[in-house]
Design goal:
Blueprint lengths: L5 E10 L2 E6 L2 E7 L2 H5 L8 E6 L5 E6 L5 E2 L4 E2 L3 E7 L7 H13 L3 E7 L7 H9 L3 E4 L9 H7 L3 E5 L6 H8 L25 E5 L2 E5 L48 H7 L5 H13 L7
Parallel strand pairs: 3-5, 8-9, 8-11, 9-10, 11-13
Antiparallel strand pairs: 1-2, 1-4, 2-3, 4-5, 6-7, 12-13
The structure holds guanosine-5'-triphosphate, magnesium ion (MG) and zinc ion.
The site of guanosine-5'-triphosphate (GTP) has 26 residues, from helix 5.
Length: about 300
């Protein structure tokens, strides 16, 4: 029997109509099958795909295998973890942005992991405590002090994890500590614009041990309005994990946990069981999603 030239691999990067597909230790440069466009299929970084290797060594991408999940911004499929990088200073933490990113991850069944960076400049323990209490794995690190990044390295072992967060928080810097051979470009924050320069431009998967890490371009607060446009208002409650013990305990079954009397979520906020900032983020997101039609 002739050796099969059909292989299964992972898209590490898509750029200019070409897809780089990793199979074992080889990378094949592939073009998508002609009919993909007609069928509305867009392969993403992180996709598991079937390819046929051509005599010239390039590949044709024949099929995209079913996805476990996918993010729209940045476009990546099959994530285990969304690593939300927060800078303790320059840029300062924005809790609403953090909570929105967490909600997006929860909504897609991707585990959020919080990384508080630049602790050489400002301590991150208070924020870490807030988010640990809410039920998240938190790491306080400094990309300038490599030993502080070790616990994060252990947590991400063997997983596919994308790094996200505002421009300038230090995503690329931390990735460079995790894998010095990456040499991701990092940038000085533009003081004039008061935001990063978006040093990182496209989403690329990097193999690290038995897992993959993805650097992504950061966003400014302006783009943040667009991020999360797939969230549904009627699902928002489920995107706040520390609210879940109060499910079904409000006076009204239709309670949206805003101003209704007898709301168990608000009672938990008053008793200090739920952080005020988390609840405020819920209300603010709910308002942002207000114009959505219910299903
Ligand atoms: N003092 C200090 N500076 C840091 C730390 N981590 C990153 N920086 C600096 O912060 C700036 C931005 O870092 P990047 O790693 O480029 O940030 P990024 O999140 O990848 O930014 P984008 O690619 O634009 O999204 C650079 O000047 C880094 O040297 C840290 O832990 N401590
Ligand atoms: Mg970067
Ligand atoms: Zn309620």
């Amino acid at each position: 029997m002739a050796m099969s030239n059909k292989l299964t691999g992972i898209v590490t990067k898509g750029i200019g109509g070409f897809y780089y597909v990793e199979v074992a230790d080889a990378i094949y440069t592939c073009k998508a099958r002609g009919s993909f466009r007609k069928e509305g299929i867009t392969p993403l970084a992180g996709d598991r795909v079937e390819i046929t290797v051509q005599p010239d060594g390039t590949g044709v991408l024949d099929a995209v295998l079913p996805r476990r999940n996918q993010l729209v911004r940045p476009p990546i499929a099959n994530l285990d973890c969304l690593v939300i990088v927060v800078s303790m200073t320059e840029p300062a933490p924005n809790l609403q942005v953090i909570d929105k990113l967490i909600a997006i991850a929860e909504d897609k069944d991707i585990e959020p992991v919080l990384v508080f960076n630049k602790i050489d400049l400002k301590d991150g323990e208070q924020l870490a405590a807030l988010y640990r209490k809410a039920g998240f794995d938190c790491f306080t690190v400094s990309a300038k002090e490599p030993e502080t990044v070790e616990p994060l390295r252990c947590r991400l072992q063997g997983l596919t994890a994308a790094f996200t967060g505002n421009s300038g928080v230090g995503k690329s810097s931390i990735l460079n500590v995790l894998e010095p051979s990456l040499q991701q470009e990092t940038g000085e924050i533009s003081q004039k614009l008061g935001r990063g320069r978006h040093t990182t431009r496209s989403a690329t998967l990097f193999r690290i041990g038995s897992g993959y890490l993805v650097d992504t371009p950061g966003f400014s607060s302006l783009d943040m309005e667009l991020v999360g446009d797939t969230l549904r208002r009627d699902q928002l409650f489920y995107c706040f994990r520390e609210f879940q013990p109060y499910f079904g305990k409000c006076r009204f079954s239709s309670c949206a946990h805003l101003k209704e009397p007898g709301c168990a979520v608000r009672a938990a906020v008053d008793e200090g069981e739920i952080a005020v900032s988390r609840y405020e983020s819920y209300v603010s997101l709910y308002e942002q999603l207000k114009d959505q039609k219910d299903w």
